[in-house]
Amino acid sequence: MHSVLVGHSGVTADEVLAVARGGAKVTLTAAALDEIAASRETVDALAARPEPVYGVSTGFGALAVRHISAPMRTRLQHSLIRSHAAGMGPTVEREVVRALMFLRLKTLASGRTGVRPVVAQTMAEVLNAGITPVVHEYGSLGCSGDLAPLAHCALVLTGEGRAEGPDGTVRQAAELLAEAGIAPVALREKEGLALINGTDGMLGMLIMACADLARLFTSADITAALTLEALLGTDRVLAPELHAIRPHPGQAASAENMRRVLDGSALTGHHQVGFDGVAPAPRVQDAYSVRCAPQVAGAGRDTLAHARLVAERELAAAVDNPVVLPDGRVESNGNFHGAPVGYVLDFLAIAVADLGSIAERRTDRLLDKDRSHGLPPFLADDPGVDSGLMIAQYTQAALVSENKRLAVPASVDSIPSSAMQEDHVSMGWSAARKLRTAADNLTRILAVELVAAARALELREQAAPRASAPASRAVREALLAAGGGGAGPDRFLAPDLAAAEEFVRSGALVLAAESVTGPLA
């Protein structure tokens, strides 16, 4: 397993994914350790002065008016972590915790936080040992950092709290650190604050969501293409010249993906003249859910591009308060506010909801005998005796409905905290949590469309022997091999849908199409 180098100039999204999901080891560069040590000298000099400095020799939040004497400052930092480790509810996923710890380590390595090198080194050791602090669902308002989630992580560095070991068992942090040979950290001035004052949780979830949605947008282009083909639609609307005159890059990419998946199909292009008597109602145009698929998916792609730009900027940031500037000044600031990240998390949730909505409309069209152009009702083997995919669409509709609720922005809300000192917050953590749910739901929604389109194409080819596109045929064969099922009498359907969900989630759908088309956007 490779090691990710953490320097003072930031990390990449791929490195975050490698640590969070791939378990990659982390190593602090010598330059980063030098930068950390230099900024610590500044903090030590301030700590020795009689004037109060926020985060160094004062309380926190609304309690910042109290000056804390030197003998009490270690207690101050530990009290901060203990009191702020106040999360409640279910534990969040291991990958989320590893992402937020790695991103906090990235900021420590910037040399702008004023911690000692041992603090950063201990965090790296905890990550490398596979020790994952227990972090709870609720506790962050997305301002002053993801406070409670980060505090639960910081608590483990001090040998307190609970964590999941490499074997997945939750135990006391002190036991896990001792087994790994890691000495707990005794926090000094500024260090407790530096460990919790960042947007790391919401940023980590944004980076992972961007990776997942990139795959899902490509998956949606593939399922839309299969549906177009099964409905005997026209691929002429995918011509590059049509998308060049409305130059949204995402739209052009989605249209090109669909065009390549449909290349070589003998089923498309029969919308006006019928298809061997199977399509009794020739059409001038396809329905919006089919014809406008590139426009909707493409808008989502462009939203994703903007979200990635915000994530890249945040990855280059050193978020803490106060910060140690390169010229030695220590200044308070508001960079911990999660608005930039929260906005794009909510924006992505809107795009996800709409993409799922149009996919469900296509599925419903495949199942409706009055709109499917010759397919049997609900794609059933013996309609009336068999119900086919009727209830699969119900499940899909329920997921679409939930995603519409999850698209309500979290970032437009704010609730005052800390005796009105922190009187406007971003709710970015909440935006990230609901986006993760929405992306999971979108995976299932696309899986249902895929099952329906694959079954429709199988029935279409049985009725009249014209070949589907090589790429769509490769997708159907791979889905069948993965347990996604095919046409036939009614059977226990949930396993077929679960197999299709994993087929989409794992990226196998995209790989199957690309085995014919080559790399898709």
Task: List the keywords.
521 residues, mainly alpha, Fumarase C, Chain B, domain 1, 2 domains, 19 helices, 9 strands, Histidine ammonia-lyase, histidine ammonia-lyase activity, EC 4.3.1.3
Which range best describes the helical content: under 10%, 10-25%, 25-40%, 40-55%, 55-70% or over 70%?
Answer: 40-55%
Instruction: Give me the CATH superfamily of the largest domain.
Output: Fumarase/aspartase (Central domain)
Name the beta content range: 5-15%
Return the CATH topology of the largest domain.
Fumarase C, Chain A, domain 2
Low-pLDDT residue spans: none
Basic shape: elongated
Distance between the termini: 28 Å
Major sheet description: 3 strands, antiparallel
How many domains? 2
Q: Tell me the strand order in the biggest sheet.
A: 4-6-7
Task: Label the CATH architecture of the largest domain.
Answer: Up-down Bundle
Content-based structural category: mainly alpha
The count of helical stretches stands at: 19
pLDDT averaged over residues:
94
Strand runs, count:
9
Order of helices and strands: EHEHHEHHEEHEEHHHHHHHEEHHHHHH
* Rounded radius of gyration (Å): 27 Å
- CATH class category of the largest domain: Mainly Alpha
Q: If you had to describe this structure to a student in words, what would you say it looks like?
A:
- The protein has 521 residues and is mainly alpha-helical.
- It folds into 2 domains: 3-198, Fumarase C, Chain B, domain 1, CATH 1.10.275.10; 205-517, Up-down Bundle (Fumarase C, Chain A, domain 2).
- 55% of the residues lie in helices and 5% in strands.
- It is built from 19 helices and 9 strands.
- It has helices at 13-20, 30-47, 73-84, 94-109, 117-128, 147-157, 173-180, 191-196, 200-230, 240-244, 249-262, 288-291, 293-315, 339-367, 390-406, 428-463, 470-481, 494-505, 508-517; strands at 3-6, 25-28, 88-91, 132-133, 136-138, 162-164, 170-172, 323-324, 330-331.
- A 3-stranded antiparallel β-sheet has the order 4-6-7. A two-stranded parallel sheet has the order 1-2.
- Strand 6 and strand 7 (170-172) form a beta hairpin.
- Helix 1 (13-20) crosses helix 4, helix 13 (293-315) runs antiparallel to helix 14 (339-367) and helix 14 (339-367) runs parallel beside helix 16.
- The longest helix has 36 residues, at 428-463.
- The two termini are 28 Å apart.
- The mean pLDDT is 94.
